[in-house]
Amino acid sequence: MLTRRLALAAVVALAPVASAQDLGAQSADLIVTNARIYTVDENRPMVEAMAIRDGRVVFTGPARGAMTLRGPGTQVLDLHGRTVIPGMIDSHVHLLNLGNSLRNVDLVGTTSYQDVVARVAERARDTPAGAWVLGRGWDQNDWGDTRFPTHDALSRAVPNHPVVLTRIDGHATLVNAAAMKAANLTAQTQDPSGGRVERGAGGSPTGVLVDRAMGLVSRVVPPMSREQTKEAVQAAIKEMNRWGLTSVHDAGVGRGVIDVYEEVAREGRFDIRDYVMVANDDDAINHYLQRGPQSGLYEGRLWIKAIKISADGALGSRGAALIEPYADDPSNTGLALVPSGRVKDVASRALRGGFQLNVHAIGDRANRTVLDEFEQALTDNSVADHRFRIEHAQIIHPDDVPRFAILGVIPSMQASHQTSDMYWAVNRLGPTRVLGAYAWRSLLNSGVIIANGSDLPVERTNPLISFMASVSRQDARGWPAGGWHPEQRMTRDEALKSMTIWAAYASFMENDIGSLSPGKHADFVVLDQDIMRVPPDLILNTNVLATYLGGRAVYQKPLP
Which domains are delineated in the chain? Predict the structure, then answer.
């Protein structure tokens, strides 16, 4: 019955009211009532009703108060006790990559290399010979043999198509012989700065390319057409709306893709609020610095006022830059992806141009280096409210934890990474260093906020996976009992804030979104159970019944 009511959207007022002309000008477009509404507004954290006019919240409180704004054209949505939260914000996504992953070979959840090969071979059978086959999501840590694979089995099974398979973290690819031939990748090919070609006997490439080495093959993959890009963008937005996301922070986007975003937004088909981080490319950075910070373009759909740099690789592919060597690879301390001084230089330019700088740093060495260069830039360019961020901040040396608060740096972290990585993280880091991994409580206690997210398509789109991980530090099966290093858990209130108002603050959007407060955009989600009260093991059973952006439904759960 609820979904039918959501589909119908309202019950129209039954009788005229005195001063109808005045009321018509002031009445609400939509009243949501009979609900448990978590507003994330400190002044009124829980209400039963809210009223919306022109896409913004105009009232929250008791139903009696909301109904005073009911006019002849007002729709009334009775939720029969269901739960409402502000539209969820994912603070670190790759929007176009998500759209691409929806049409490429899905390798997430594969339990063996043989499974990967089988899925790719199946796709190749329906693909014209010579056409490229792309996929994403493999993770050798989930296989019985956790070593990196070699291309041999893949090349035998798919000899007539160049194949590029991106690891789940986006920091390594597996390619077959046809792809290596197309790229002229041989034993004589040198490792690029910040990258590594995995090699076998005689220096021959094994097919795995780590970090900057991925470009050796990706540069010859045929680019998508503009129409294909637009289709992928809209597919990604539709998928995110389905899971209750109304805003995302889009990490490392090139100028050409931003142009597509603007085109789609101008057409009125960009149903999400996207805080875009410009990719680490000097031409793009100079273009947007010259253009100046852009906020709320196209009816609040696009913000372009941040820059993103990647300082190191990922832990799963042993590219995260560590102070001491990997516990399971003593000759390796990871990869630095940018030269010394690059972060300081871009940070200084960002501060002078009114832009935010957000830097990917996973390893403790990368985090320390970024904090050092942030500090140098801030010393030379004093700005009170810069809100610089470190994206991921996964492994932090204890000495560096308080520096986030001291420097005013926001850790943008993905709680779902902890539950994905906990099975093998201790193997990479050892029992002592792992205590500084995914250290949410240590950071919160130091006086900072955390902006939560998923890094999708690295993790699944569902933001409640990160919510559950934040409060339980357990996987979907409830493992381990009591949680993985449970002393680092968040409270439910903190977890909700990390994906609403704190995430909004981390993107300078707290005056527009992040809470259901009068004056803000009416972005909200209807859930079929109360995530703030159900046992942790039931959180992931929660369904999104509807997602509203600016008071308009952009997703409704289909009727059975």
Answer: 1-87+514-560 (2.30.40.10), 101-218 (3.10.310.70)
